[in-house]
Amino acid sequence: MENQKTIIIAGGGYAGILAANRLARKKLPLKLILITDKPNFQERIRNHQLLAGNLKKEYPISDLLHKKITLKLGKIDKINGDKKEILLENKETLSYDYLIYALGVQKLPSNPDLPNYISIAEVEDCRKMNQVLRQISKPKITIIGAGLSGIETVAELAETFPHSELSIIENGKLGSGFSDAARNWMIDHLTKNQVNILEDTKVTSFSEGSIHTSAGFQLKHDICIFSNGLQASPVGSASSLPVNPKGQILVNEFLGCKSHPEIIGAGDGIQVDSPSGSHLRMACASAMPMGIYAAERLSFLLGAKSKLGEKPFSLAYLGRNVSLGRKDGVVQSSLRDDTPIGIVWKAKAAARIKETICKLTIFSMKMEKYFNFYLWKA
C-alpha cells in the first residue's frame, strides 16, 4: 500500500490493546503490529481474585483485537530509537515508523528470592501460590503494602480462607489515598475478619519463613505477598530512553518521548514529565485513557483530524474504588487531582460498582474493535 506506515504497539495490556483497536479503525494506510509475550490478557486489577482462586475466566488477546492488527508473540529485549527498530529476545528485528510504548510494570528485582515470597503484580506467581495455599489448612500470610492492591488482597484472602492468619504491614497508613471515613470502613472490615493491621511499621529484613520489622519483632509466615515495590519494564532503560528512577520513560504533555518524538507512551510504563501530569498514578484508570489518547495523537501526527489528538493529554480522576471480598467495598470520590472528598459509597453498593468497573475494562476493549466507545473526563 502506498505510503503505508508501520505502527508497532509494544505491550498487550489495557493501554496497548485500546490504542491498537482505536488505530485499526482509522482511515489511514497503517500496518499495525502488537507485540506481547503473553497469549492471554493479564487482568491485573483482578490478581487478588486469581491468588484466592476466585477468578476462572481468561481472555485470549487475539479475541480482544481488531482483525486488522497482527499479534506478535515475543519478548522485547531492546528498542533502537535511532534506527526505529525493535529487537526481540529471539534476535528477531522489527522496523517501525511509529511506536506506541505501552509496556507496563513488574516486581522489583530486589524482592527476596526466597521460597513463597511473591508479588501480587505477577500473574504466574498468583496462580502458583493459590495451589500452595490450598495445601495448608491454616496458612499464615503476610501482605507487605496497604495500598489498593494490598487491601484487596488481604480482604479477598480473609473471605476465601477464613481459617488463615493474616497480617498486613504498611510503612505509613493503610489506605492513605482515601478519606478518614473510607479508611475507617476498611479497617473495621479487616478487623472483623481477624486481620492483623500493622501501620507505621517498616520491614527491615527477610528470611525464609519470616520477616523482621522496625518495631523489633519477627513475623512468621507460610506465604509473604508484596503488593508494593513495582518498577516499569526494564526495556526503556535498556534502550537508553530517558527514564525516571522507577524505569518509566519520560514523556511530554502529548505523551511523546522526550528523546524520540516518533515514540508515544501510554500506561504504567511512562511518566508525564510536565505539571499537567504531576497527579497521574500507576493505575488502570490512567492507562486506559492514555491508550486511547496515544492512538488519537498518532492519528493527528499522520494527518487525520482528531480534536483529542491535537490537544495535550488531560485526565481528571473521579475517584478510587477498592473491593473488600466479593460482598463489600469502598468507592471514594475525588477531585480531578485525585484528592479524596467526602462522598463515599460502602458495603454491597460499592462492591457492585467496583465489579461493574472491572467488567467495563474488558467490555471497552471489545467495543473499541467496532466504534469509539471509551470515554473519560479530561
From TrEMBL:
Q: Provide the FAD/NAD(P)-binding domain boundaries.
A: 6-270
An MF annotation (GO) of this entry: NAD(P)H dehydrogenase (quinone) activity
Domain of life, per lineage: Bacteria
Q: Which InterPro entries match?
A: FAD/NAD-bd_sf, FAD/NAD-binding_dom, NADH-Q_oxidoreductase
Q: Which cofactor does it need?
A: FAD
Tell me the keywords, alphabetical order.
FAD, Flavoprotein, Membrane, Oxidoreductase, Transmembrane, Transmembrane helix
Q: Which Gene3D superfamilies match?
A: 3.50.50.100
Signal peptide, first to last residue = none
Q: Which family does it belong to?
A: Belongs to the NADH dehydrogenase family.
Recorded protein name is NADH dehydrogenase FAD-containing subunit
Q: Which organism is it from?
A: Leptospira idonii
